[in-house]
Amino acid sequence: MRIIVTGGAGYIGSVTARMLAKSGNEILILDDLSKGHREAVKGLDLAVAQIGDKNKVKQVCGEFAPQACIHFAAKSLVAESVENPLAYFQANLGGSMNILEALLGVECKVFIFSSTAAVYGEPKDVPLTEDSETRPLNPYGSSKLMFEQVLEQTARATEMKFVSLRYFNAAGADLENDLGEDHHPETHLIPRVIAVALGKEPCANIYGTDYPTPDGTCVRDYIHVTDLAAAHALALERLARGGESGIYNLGNENGRSVREVVEEVKKVSGRDFPVKEAPRRPGDPAVLVASSKRAKAELGWEPKHESLEDIVRSAWEWHKRHPDGYLT
Ligand code: UFG
Fold it and tell me: Which of these, 35, 78, 74, 75, lies nearest to 207 by C-alpha position?
């Protein structure tokens, strides 16, 4: 299949693009390289373009004539979205609509969307199912939810089918293809704690120890990046077979606390390091845990790296090999 992968030079995008290329698909990455890395897409075709550049997006889609699109390109920093909401709606809603319009223009009928657990906001109950209430707490989550609604309405009005994948906490590395997490700034827990274990930062911070959770720290559902990538391939297969559009949670259905993650990094790295208890980070829900039953039943998805140890170990190995990310 000819597949355009927007944001394919980013963390989850690059792992997914590589997996699909290896299974024989023709891949074109569209990425502005503002966050993504050229090194992560070596050997794959790359069009350097912003999704906000409507004419360029139209030109690239016109020339490549994709049969499917996987749309990762987005702004994804929660705190930044609170400070600058317009930039988030422009990129994640406006930019996404540019892609959608260009795809409709070339009769591309398969769209896989990179969504997020942030659409749920503060959950009333966990595990979260796709039917749980969606009340995003920040512009990042809102922009993703709004684009899901755009997709639903577009699918009703056209022949376009879509799958929206709501990721919980993406983590780990694809060691086989030497792809890992390299964000600037890095806000995510696992790479931040690993940076401390590597001696790049003085101490790990635990943001909030007074949450209503067993050890007082936030609980998240960490899911390995190659398991996420596999779900995209399955979603493509579903739509290519004529399956219906749908929305799916992707998580391990297993919550782990910040303290547990810090301990796991110590265990896997064999290194001890200082840990500071810091105030809560604004906007963090106490617990986010997925029910992924629907993805398992309808996509046939089975995560292979469920244990936190596997996830942390792969991240640790990658960061050890690349202490300065893709620069090393
Ligand atoms: N945390 C720390 N110390 C750190 C970094 C994070 O204690 O140095 C804590 C956070 O406060 C949070 C947990 O670790 O409780 C996980 O934080 P991450 O930043 O790794 O992940 P989030 O759960 O905040 O983010 C994920 C996705 C986002 C999405 C968000 C929705 O990565 O894309 O869930 O809540 F928007």
Answer: 78
Tell me how far the alpha carbon of residue 275 is from its chain's centroid.
27
Question: What pLDDT does residue 326 have?
Answer: 96
Site to probe by mutation for ligand 1, drawn from 128, 189, 228, 276 as the one with most ligand atoms within 8 Å of Cβ, is 189
Residues of the chain with pLDDT > 70, as a percent, come to 100
Whole-Å CA distances, 98 to 54, 60, 132, 155:
6, 12, 29, 16
Q: What is the pLDDT of residues 280-328, one digit of tens each?
A: 998 899 999 999 999 999 999 999 999 999 999 999 999 999 999 998 7
Structure tokens, 183: 């964000």
CATH 2.120.10.30 fits 2-170+224-250, yes or no: no
CATH architecture of the domain with residue range 189-221+253-327: Alpha-Beta Complex (3.90)
Q: Ligand 1, atom 12: nearest CA belongs to which residue? A: 218
Tell me what the mean pLDDT of segment 57-71 comes to: 98
Q: Which tens digits make up the pLDDT trace of 108-121?
A: 999 999 999 999 99
Among 81, 183, 258, 277, residue to substitute to test ligand 1 (most atoms within 8 Å of Cβ): 258
Domain ranges for the chain, please list them: 2-170+224-250, 189-221+253-327
Q: What pLDDT score does 162 carry?
A: 98
Cβ of 187 closer than 6 Å to ligand 1, yes or no, is yes
- Asked whether the beta carbons of 207 and 213 are under 8 A apart, the reply is no
